[in-house]
Amino acid sequence: MAPHLEEITPRNFETAIGIRVRPGQEHAVEPVERSLAEAYVHPPGVAWPRLILDGTRPVGFLMAFLDIDWYGDGSVRRSGLWRLNIAAGEQGRGYGRFAVASVGAEIRRRGGSELYVTWHPGADGPEEFYLRLGFGKNGETSGGQTVGVLGLGDA
Predict the structure, then answer these.
(1) Quick one: which H or E segment has residue 130?
(2) In 3D, which of 104, 42, 41, 112 has the Cα closest to residue 77?
(3) Prediction pTM value
(4) β-strand partners of 6
C-alpha cells in the first residue's frame, strides 16, 4: 500500500499520540501531544496536523503551518513543515520524504510557492535529510533552529 495522510480525529487521536521517534531524537522534535496542543491554541487554519499511515499502519505524524505571520509584524507570511515525527521503527523507508512532498502539495494547492522548515543544528539532527530533499539554508534562525526553504515551482 502507498502512504497517505489522515486528519487527526477522536477516532485516531490515541494512535497519533502513540507515535514515538527513535531514542536520542527526542530533543530534535516535540512529541505529538505538544504539537496537537499547539494546533489547538492557534487560530483555525494555521496548523495542519496529519497522521501518516501506510495502509492501516501508523508510521508518523506531521504538522504544517499555513500562512503564518513569520515575524509577528505582518511583514512576511510563510507556510511550511512545523513538525515531523517518523516512528522509530519506520525511519529510512521514505515516509519523511512523503511527508515533505505532501506538505508541499498542500501549500501549492493553497497558492504558495515556498515550503519552509526549521531544524535543530548538529550532527544528530535532521539537517542532511532536509538538504538532500533540496532545502537550502536561508541564513536565518528561528528559536535557535536553522531555517530552510524549498521552492515549489509554479503554484
Answers:
(1) helix 127-132
(2) 112
(3) 0.93
(4) 51
Collect all residues with Cβ–Cβ distance below 8 Å to 115 and sequence separation of at least 6. 79, 80, 81, 100, 103, 104, 107, 135, 149, 150, 152
CB-count exposure of residue 147 (10 Å: 0-12, 13-18, 19+)? buried
Distance CA 58, CA 125 (A): 23
The residue assigned the cell 480525529 is 9
For residues 7 and 80, what is the distance between their CA atoms, to the nearest angstrom?
Answer: 17
- Burial group, residue 67, by CB count within 10 angstroms (0-12, 13-18, 19+): middle
| Contact between 93 and 57 (Cβ < 8 Å) | no
pLDDT at 24: 84
Three-state secondary structure call for residue 88:
helix
Residues 6+ away with beta carbon under 8 Å from 9: none
Reported as a single tens digit per residue, the pLDDT across 23-68 is 888 888 899 999 999 999 999 999 999 999 999 999 999 999 999 9
